[in-house]
UniProtKB/TrEMBL annotation:
Natural source organism: Streptomyces argenteolus
Alphabetized NCBIfam families for the sequence: PRK08208.1
Pfam families, A to Z: Radical_SAM (PF04055)
SMART domains: Elp3
Lineage, opening ranks: Bacteria, Bacillati, Actinomycetota, Actinomycetes, Kitasatosporales
PANTHER family xrefs: COPROPORPHYRINIGEN III OXIDASE (PTHR13932), RADICAL S-ADENOSYL METHIONINE DOMAIN-CONTAINING PROTEIN 1, MITOCHONDRIAL (PTHR13932:SF5)
Gene3D superfamilies: 3.30.750.200
Protein name: Heme chaperone HemW
InterPro entries assigned: Coproporphyrinogen-III_oxidase (IPR034505), Elp3/MiaA/NifB-like_rSAM (IPR006638), rSAM (IPR007197), rSAM_sf (IPR058240)
Domain Radical SAM core: residue ranges: 47-292
Amino acid sequence: MTGTTRGSTHSSGPYRSYVYAYPHKTAYRPLGDGPAGRPLLSDLWAAERKDALSLYAHIPFCEVRCGFCNLFTRIGAPGELTTRYLDALDRQATAVRDALGDEEPVRFAAAAFGGGTPTFLTAGELERLCDIAEKRMGADLRSVPLSVETSPSTATADRLAVLADRGTTRVSIGVQSFVEAEARAAVRPQHRSDVEAALGRIRDARIPVLNIDLIYGIEGQTEASWRTSLDAALAWRPEELYLYPLYVRPLTGLGRLGTGADAPEGPDAAWDEQRLRLYRAGRDHLLAQGYEQVSMRMFRRADAPHDGPEDYACQTDGMIGLGCGARSYTSSLHYSFDYAVEMREIRGIIDGFTATEDFSRAEVGRYVDEDETRRRHLLQSLLQARGMRRAEYRERFGSDPYDDFPAELEMFDARGWLDATARPALLRLSPEGLAHSDALGPDLFSPEVRAAMAAYEAK
Ligand code: SF4
């Protein structure tokens, strides 16, 4: 929901890119020419463990396009587009489930609906989406964590009732700012009263975990106005809060306006300084209010129930993505459909998806070898506040992270980003290391992934 992926700010600053999945989709490429070149899903999944899969369904529709957003989504759904999209999702789910086979147990341990805005769908369409997950894929939504993203204007009582009834355990709402002028500056105009009403409806639906997304670094935002947003969010006692630094990236609304880091008059260093200051203020405020830090962005109320996955894709289990913006992971291939940020390109890709009859092969992706798997493990564990147990890494890979990544870890150490008190059992970031997660993450990218991302042409 909150568009925060690749960075476009200067390469030495603290805000280079948000690494929530490695490798990034911009390192994916078409998987061979012609049907023969594209791997069959049944072959890809044949030797994989399938008893603790994650299911993700991507709904690429929003009512408006937020100025900072570079996620795969379009504005509105003319005609019967949502129906056609769900029809395609149904065909895809059938093909994927067939490909998983029945020789070994197939079980889903977690599910999520993201976007875009899943609640752009009507209550009836959400029922259908849950049916696809349950009846086609075999996911038992009522017995596993199910997370759903929403927005203030689409979090209506009828939709929330469906979601609660079907087993949703977590609702995440993108608020970004409770200050109306800031919401306008981030090109997401909304009235605070509408946001508050939506939060009330979510609480009324009694879904166990509420997450609120907020953004800092918006033009005109001050420490005082940031505190206003934080306190307005805290008044709802959300179980989780995500604090996102604002990024301005190519082809987004703000990118086209030429504001923020890309503005000729906007000195990067001053903006970085502002974001770091607001980050620290936000972090300290939440810690003082009884929240614990899970990662740079994620905070959890210390007394909140917790049964969901952490702030990262599980290290070893597979992921099945449905929908044209969704990724799937086997142990050796990450795959998806084509990716774009520009509206016309996105519309074309969605139209192509809805017209697809044959979903039996992977289209676009990147093979992940042993070296990349180690990087991914280190990266995703290190970006968690609790850190990485070295023994766990050694158990999985038969080597020590200091043997595999000596240069990177020495560099982090020299910058004061590693917590010396956690050694030797743990590799854990210091508070400054966590603050610099978006610089540290990209430092761990392999040269090959870096080159592929650099060669990617934004569209
Ligand atoms: S509501 Fe839609 S446009 Fe706005 S950040 Fe979320 S996905 Fe992007």
